[in-house]
Amino acid sequence: MPRDTGRTVRIGLVQSACTADREANIIQALAGIATGKAQGADVVCLQELFAGQYPCQTEDHARFDEAEQVPGPLTERLAAAAREHQVVIVGSVFERRSHGLFHNTAVVFDADGSLAGIYRKMHIPDDPHYYEKFYFAPGDTGFINVSTSRLQVGPLVCWDQWYPEAARLTTLAGAEVLFYPTAIGWLDGEETWHQEQYEAWDAMLKSHAIANGVYVVAVNRTGREGALRFWGGSVVYAPSGQRLAVASHDDAATFVVDCDVSRLEWSRTRWPFFRDRRIDAYGGLLQRWGEE
Q1: Whether residue 196 lies in the annotated active site
Q2: Residue 48 falls in the annotated catalytic set
Q3: Pick the catalytic residue: 18, 66, 121, 206?
Q4: Would the pLDDT of 211 be above 90?
Q5: Which of 18, 45, 56, 158 is catalytic?
Q6: Is 37 a residue of the active site?
């Protein structure tokens, strides 16, 4: 791969609060893309499942009606926005793959509106008010890099951000930036843990940037939905672990961050983790636990 010398990519983040009005949610996301472009963005990332309120707080068969095929009406609107504004878009949709088969899917559109790639969320949680296993089958795309005209995009989704293996494999595939459309928040009744939970999340994102010498972008929801108060805090980390920007916990925000791609090589030659990896010694990662 040739060395990057000062190639700067401007990345836009659209942090929003969603309501029960699906069309209003879509319109605000499209407006966020337009605002990002007006601020000079080359790439814009939306939050997880931006078209609706987070569906997984209960196990409700009626919520399957919200899913759409890819490509489909929702992704066509993202494609049109990418084409109109000449930006790469990283979106997140409730994908209807077939009868009874659904995924939590990241879609990447190039600046000409073409579908550059899809990633189906690999790690599916099942926790109070995050009952995703009821809705989504585990992804089968593997951890991928999506080549676009602006950037090598590493799409991941929310729960994936807690797994160092996911970040490492996506970086090894060639990604320059790891993108995490996200829906994570505080649960009522756990107030004493709120700061600790947020700081753990933030530390994981920073650690992925450092360990892989890569930019990390996480775009979270904000606002209250049922028993969850989404904590916002959308953030960008440089390969050195420097926090370049962070949004508030409580307010919607669209902002753009300059990412100098030459910092990948700078970081990886100062902290040569890829050079020193012992790929001959990691077979144990393929086991569930210990030496079974």
Answers
A1: no
A2: yes
A3: 121
A4: yes
A5: 158
A6: no
